Amino acid sequence: MGNVRRSRGRALILQRAKGSGHGLARVPRGVTAGFVVDRLLQSLATLGVDVARTCRNLGIDRQGIRQLGAVVPRTTVLALFRAALEQTHDEHLGLHLAERMPLVGPIGYLFRSSGTIGEGLQALVSACSVASSTTRASFDAKSVPARLTIETEGGPDADVARQLLEYLATVVVVLLREVTPSSHPVSAVHFPHSARTGTVSEYRRVLGCEVHFAQPHCAVFLPPGILTQPSTLASPSVESALRRTIDDLRATRAKTALSEQVPATVYMRLWMGEAATEGAIAKALGLSVRSLQRGLATEGASLRTLRRNTQVAVAQEILTSSDLSIKEVAARVGFSSTAAFDHAFKALLRVSPGRFRAVGARRARIAAR
Q1: pTM
Q2: CB-hemisphere CA count at 13 Å for 45?
Q3: CA–CA gap between residue 273 and residue 271 (Å, rounded)
Q4: CA 266 to CA 243: how far, in whole Å?
Q5: 197 — phi, psi (to 5°)?
Q6: How far apart are CA 37 and CA 77, in angstroms?
């Protein structure tokens, strides 16, 4: 809701295992694990990003994202990268972010504790969906050279999409360096985007290998013989425990109730300026409207009620944090008319939108005295 005047509005960023689905075409649906975002924030702080202010602006709960099963909407992760680019002006943000990032989550440890380099890469591929539901990886051990291919949904912002791919590829390279005796465990890295003029040397410094641009895919290539090398940090007992942890994370996310996912989806879409019709909500969650309605009914919930309650909740925040007119607020949260908005608002809160705003303003003046 970037054009809300003097708005302190925030998106619903933290969810606890909310499932997937936010955004229309060109806006990636899905989630990123809270532990990944927590590590990103730690690394961004070392690059000069005002993490506290950025989290406030985006509504990120630093404590909440550390909980088991916590996830963050993909749209928020993209907004985080955009904010970091604007604050750092670092055209190599993705490289530098991964270079400094503490890779201490369960997936990184699973990779390290695997028996061989090849087994670690296979584990990384199978577990990457836990880190981000919109990132996919494939590993071809039979090709010459062997390669790990990475795909992710970067949204409409080309700069952010570029940084995301460069970050992910660099994470793989950094992990490989930790578990092999060689300081150059990668033979080449390919990126689908074009090189920036005069910047190739920084890619070679960070990645430690040849880098090629304008390629069909983002891929990390490995030299012959490396896949059978034992990991220097191999630990069968740790690997087994981490596989159970990752299975638990998958199960936690899969069990999330639809009645929790729907309000989060509506909230996020409204704050992002996207439609929150019943059809759009269902599509974001990967369901038909009828299937969504049936699923909610088994939980004793109603799509219409959840949607309407969330519309009013967002309207409350806009009324107290902006100077938009009542008519503009009604349109912003998806009501067809001011009368329909007024009726729904009164039915839920027993006060009109105008009265709600006036009372809030008066309380603010009293508190300021």
Answers
A1: 0.63
A2: 11
A3: 5
A4: 33
A5: -55, 125
A6: 8
Q: With residue 364 as reference, give the H or E element that holds it.
A: helix 353-368
Q: How far apart are CA 35 and CA 43, in angstroms?
A: 13
Residue 335 one-letter amino acid: F
119 contacts: CB under 8 Å, gap ≥ 6 = 231
Tokens of 95: 């490289």
Name the token pair of 106. 């369960």
Does residue 35 contact residue 252 with C-beta atoms inside 8 Å? no
Question: For residues 260, 268, 68 and 80, what is the CA-based torsion angle, rounded to 10 degrees?
Answer: 180
Distance CA 151, CA 139 (A): 12
Q: What is the largest CA-CA distance in the chain?
A: 72
Distance CA 224, CA 232 (A): 18
Closest alpha carbon to 72 in 119, 42, 36:
36
**Separation between Cα atoms, residue 300 and residue 220, nearest integer Å:** 48
- The per-residue pLDDT for range 288-310, each reduced to its tens digit, is 898 889 888 877 789 999 999 99
Buried b (16+ CB within 10 A) or exposed e, 271-304: bbebebeeebbbbbbebeeeebbebbeeeebebe
Helical packing angle, 74-88 and 93-100, nearest 10°: 100
Cα(174)–Cα(207) distance, integer angstroms: 8
Residue 124 identity (one-letter amino acid):
L
Amino acid at 218: C
At residue 365, does pLDDT exceed 70? no
CA 120 to the chain's CA centroid? 24
Query: Can you tell me the distance from the alpha carbon of 274 to that of 267, in angstroms, rounded to the nearest whole number?
Result: 10
DSSP type of residue 196: P
Q: What are the two backbone dihedrals, phi and then psi, of residue 178, each rounded to the nearest 5 degrees?
A: -75, -25
User: What domains can be seen in the chain, in order of their start residue?
Assistant: 19-253 (no CATH), 258-368 (1.10.10.60)
Residues 337-357 pLDDT 10s: 999 999 999 999 999 999 998
Tokens of 25: 């075409």
d(CA 112, CA 209): 21
Q: Which two tokens stand for residue 271?
A: 């704050």
The pair of structure tokens assigned to 326 is 């009542």
- Residues 191, 215: contact at Cβ < 8 Å? yes
